[in-house]
Design a protein that fits this description.
Blueprint lengths: L7 H51 L4 H84 L1
Helix pairs in contact: 1-2
Amino acid sequence: MKFHYVYQKVVDLKSNQKTQAEWMLSAAVGQLQAEQRTLELLQEDKLQTISAIQSEMENKASMIKLHELQRYMDYLEDRIAMKIGDVHQAEVNVDKKKAVLSGKMLDEKVWLKAKEKAKDKHQHEMLLREQNELDEIATVRFAMKAR
């Protein structure tokens, strides 16, 4: 007799929820990486602007050009500050998704363990049934020989 777990749909649901949580974590990690990359690009741009300002100062550039570069530097610093906030927010989101995933994994593990216990119980019952049948056959044979 084949094993049929009564709560198989629940096990499947928990497995699907875990898979969805993995996808959500993957998306959150991708978002974090994108935010970090954007921050790196802004910081590189800031370094290039600093270099440009130093170069312009050495070449005795016009005040208008220096003022323009300084305004761009201020803009970059504001963007970097905002991007650091975005990176932090993305990190918090990743941590939340990790917590959700670990909860889903634990949930799935509990249901899989329950299924495994039910399967073990079923197999034990089947072995007992089979043993009882073999005992009955042996008893009938013994009784037939005794006649």
